[in-house]
Write a structure and sequence with these properties.
753 residues, binds 1-deoxynojirimycin, 6-stranded mixed sheet, globular, 5-stranded parallel sheet, Immunoglobulin-like, Rossmann fold, alpha/beta
Length: 753
């Protein structure tokens, strides 16, 4: 009889769950009710099951744990012990696992399917750092929207993006995955990406749940070595690290991922302060937190948890709701609850958060809504995707240097020598984090340039970037001294009017676990560059890279340098359009380029110190053997036209809305876009403030000779900062305001607040 009543109530709960309609403000409380009734019929093990995420059977994005063969995973799916899977992609594969969860488990709770949709699914947009160089929030949002649409058509409904870690250390390979070094730009981009992925309605099957990661301080790994310790003070935590996460939360991001690193002695995965006090407490975040891959069990290696059971206890109590690939929750949590070490309330809270997001996605109504074969065929790799990728790629290119206006290239009658293995590489432009892309599917620079057939084009490899299998997981040989292909390249260069050299990093030289201690051109590329320079000085250097590089020699000698990052599927077309002037570049660096590795971490807005310089005597904050200045500053980027900044003025009549105006004029001969940047300095603070901070920017486009007055509004949000108690304060006093086309600004004035 008892069993009968239970079955009946389960039936009613599930029938009710299936009538879930699209998410809107009214339905939020409906969802809460549905989650509550579902929780009411779930066993402890089933609730813990929701907190368990398994990797699929095909791709891996982390060290493969010894535990968990396919048979066991399927068995757990049937028993309702799995809430999510990652790295299962393609409608057929997703349907297969979803079917087991929905049709063979007792309650039939659908899985949420996660994947690293970082800069596209099959069609790759530029790497996120490159996209950030566009400073074009609409374009970035659109790119995330396209990625969501394509991935959702492949059965996925949750992306582990955006990475919103502020990164100031180019040695860290994951700088390619974020928005660079700046808090203000990073926060705006975080919002654009969250809005792009999630859209306005999560139950729309063209959107994905987004995930702000890695909470927190992952970008502050000591010595730029991935997974390394982060030790930062409260001021940096509150003013630099947390704001992009808060912005993502405010934009409605539904999940967070914690991080591998420890922060001030506590592994982030087991950090109550970060997850319970700040995120779920102060910020009132009601989505869920997923651990990073194996980061729960890694707390043993950190020397924080004595065994896996202890790790599960620490992580769950700290607020990590879902276990990615540690097998800690599924094996240990039930016993921990029975022993009273983890309360049932903690389990209920985590399961509630996860179920809620599944309801918001509309998965209870239709668990197969992301499994539509027709849509999969139509959307993936479609023209719409490639058009958007091309548009984003062009916007991401930064013209670093263009002496003598070598660029744009003439379209007729010239001999052009294209040199460098990367010029013909169809894989590297896809960048890191491109698991679902087809290998070698990008348009190469060679292919892009061949479309301009009015010139005579030769190609020679000159030098490989690295040796060995450059695909994904393997270590590669970077120190080979093979110069056997130099001669052919030198001969071609001798005969050419212009040499275009494509040098830099292969796609997998940046990304997770791809830290570098040297930031120069890998392999023998620097030697090749110098050899070519000896025979032809008319060089356009096109960089392909996932991080800032110390190309100091190139800056001194090579007249023209284009930062073309790893621009995705349409890379070669975008680069060719820029080289030939069919697109006027407008990108600005989202990360400072150092002159030497010894300057790293280098960023545009350090503190002034008690001994700023320059001074004649030795006692000031500087290097003996290198300038303090960067090679290229944050915000730098040229155009085929020029811009003049003048008439800076400040209107303080409304204290709550101070207005700063400036006039910008296109002083060149062609139409162009410019990112007008505003920086502030709070001159005296109860906690010292950086020498300047970006607090506004506007992307404008001007015809030749046209002018535009730009007005920035400064409110408390821009004037204030976090004190060392984590309180946001605004202090009256003197502010300097700077405006210009890079962080090395041309105009400056002062106002009092
Ligand atoms: C580890 C990475 O740190 C994280 O960013 C990624 O989302 C997961 N692996 C899943 O692939």
């Amino acid at each position: 009889m008892k069993k009968c009543i239970l079955l009946l109530s389960i039936f009613f709960v599930l029938a009710n769950c299936k009538s879930e309609s699209k998410l809107n403000v009214e339905s939020k409380s409906d969802i809460d009710k549905k989650v509550d009734s579902l929780l009411g019929v779930m066993t402890l093990e089933e609730k813990i099951g929701q907190m368990n995420q398994y990797n699929g059977f095909w791709d891996v994005t982390g060290p493969v744990p010894s535990e968990g063969d396919a048979a066991k995973k399927y068995d757990h799916l049937r028993k309702g012990l799995v809430g999510s899977m990652l790295n299962v992609r393609g409608v057929a594969n997703v349907r297969k696992v979803q079917k087991v969860a929905v049709e063979e488990s007792r309650l039939g709770i659908p899985l949420i399917i996660g994947f690293d949709v970082i800069h596209g699914y099959e069609t790759q947009s530029p790497i996120p750092l490159a996209e950030s160089a566009s400073w074009d929030l609409e374009a970035i949002k659109k790119s995330a929207q396209m990625a969501a649409k394509e991935a959702a058509a492949a059965g996925i409904n949750w992306t582990f993006a955006p990475m919103v870690d502020i990164s100031r250390d180019a040695r860290w390979g994951r700088v390619m995955e974020g928005a660079g070094e700046d808090v203000y730009l990073g926060s705006k981009i975080a919002v654009a990406r969250v809005e792009g992925f999630q859209g306005e309605d999560l139950s729309n099957e063209e959107t994905l749940v987004a995930c702000a990661k890695h909470f927190a301080a992952y970008g502050f790994a000591e010595s730029g070595k991935d997974y390394n310790t982060a030790d930062v003070g409260v001021s940096t935590l509150y003013n630099t690290i947390l704001p992009p996460f808060k912005a993502a939360k405010d934009a409605g991001v539904r999940t967070f991922m914690n991080s591998f690193n420890e922060l001030n002695g506590i592994p982030a995965t087991g950090d109550k302060f970060l997850q319970r006090e700040i995120l779920k407490g102060e910020w009132n975040f009601d989505g869920f937190v997923v651990s990073d891959w194996g980061s729960i069990m890694e707390m043993m290696d950190h020397g924080f948890a004595k065994d896996k059971k202890h790790a599960a206890e620490l992580a769950a109590n700290a607020g990590s709701d879902m276990d990615m690939e540690s097998y800690a929750y599924v094996n240990e949590l039930a016993n921990l609850v029975k022993e009273g070490k983890v309360s049932e309330a903690v389990i209920n809270d985590a399961a509630r958060r996860i179920l809620k997001v599944k309801f918001e996605l509309g998965l209870f109504k239709d668990p197969y809504k992301y499994c539509n074969e027709t849509r999969e065929k139509e959307v993936i790799g479609s023209k719409e995707m490639h058009d958007a990728a091309l548009d984003m790629a062009k916007k991401s290119i930064v013209l670093l240097k263009n002496e003598n206006n070598i660029l744009p290239l003439e379209k007729e009658g010239k001999k052009i020598a294209l040199i460098g293995a990367l010029a013909a590489d169809k894989n590297s432009p896809l960048g890191s984090w491109r698991l679902a892309a087809k290998d070698n599917s990008a348009i190469s620079v060679l292919e892009g340039m061949q479309k301009y057939s009015g010139n005579q084009l030769t190609f020679s490899e000159g030098a490989k970037v690295v040796f060995g299998n450059t695909n994904f997981i393997n270590e590669v040989e970077v120190n080979s001294k093979d110069t056997s292909k130099f001669q052919e390249a030198i001969q071609n260069a001798k005969k050419a009017d212009v040499v275009v050299m494509v040098l830099g990093e292969v796609g997998f030289q940046s990304g997770e676990a791809r830290s570098r201690a040297n930031l120069g051109l890998p392999g023998v590329q620097q030697e090749l560059l110098e050899e070519i320079y000896k025979v032809n000085k008319n060089i356009v250097l096109v960089l392909n890279n996932g991080r800032p590089l110390t190309i100091t020699w190139a800056d001194e000698h090579i007249p023209t340098i284009v930062e073309a990052w790893q621009l995705g599927s349409q890379a070669g077309n975008a680069i060719a359009e820029v080289l030939y002037g069919d697109y006027n570049p407008s990108g600005k660096l989202p990360m400072t380029f150092p002159r030497a590795v010894g300057q790293v971490p280098i960023y545009y807005n350090p503190k002034n110190t008690g001994r700023p310089g320059p001074k004649k005597e030795v006692f000031w904050s500087h290097y003996q053997d290198e300038s303090n200045a960067p090679l290229y500053p944050f915000g730098h980027g040229l155009s085929y036209t020029t811009f003049k900044y003048e008439n800076i003025s400040v209107d303080t009549s409304l204290k709550e809305n101070i207005k700063v105006s400036v006039t910008v004029t296109n002083t060149g001969k062609v139409k162009g876009k410019e990112v007008v940047q505003l920086y502030l300095r709070d001159v005296i603070g109860s906690v010292t403030r950086p020498i300047k901070e970006l607090k506004g920017f506007e992307l404008i486009e001007l015809e030749p000779s046209a002018s535009k007055e730009i007005t920035f509004n400064l409110t408390k949000n821009e004037l204030g900062f976090f004190n060392n108690k984590g309180e946001f304060i605004v202090e009256p006093g003197e502010f300097k305001v700077f405006v210009g086309g890079s962080s090395v600004t041309s105009l400056e004035t002062i106002f009092n607040y």
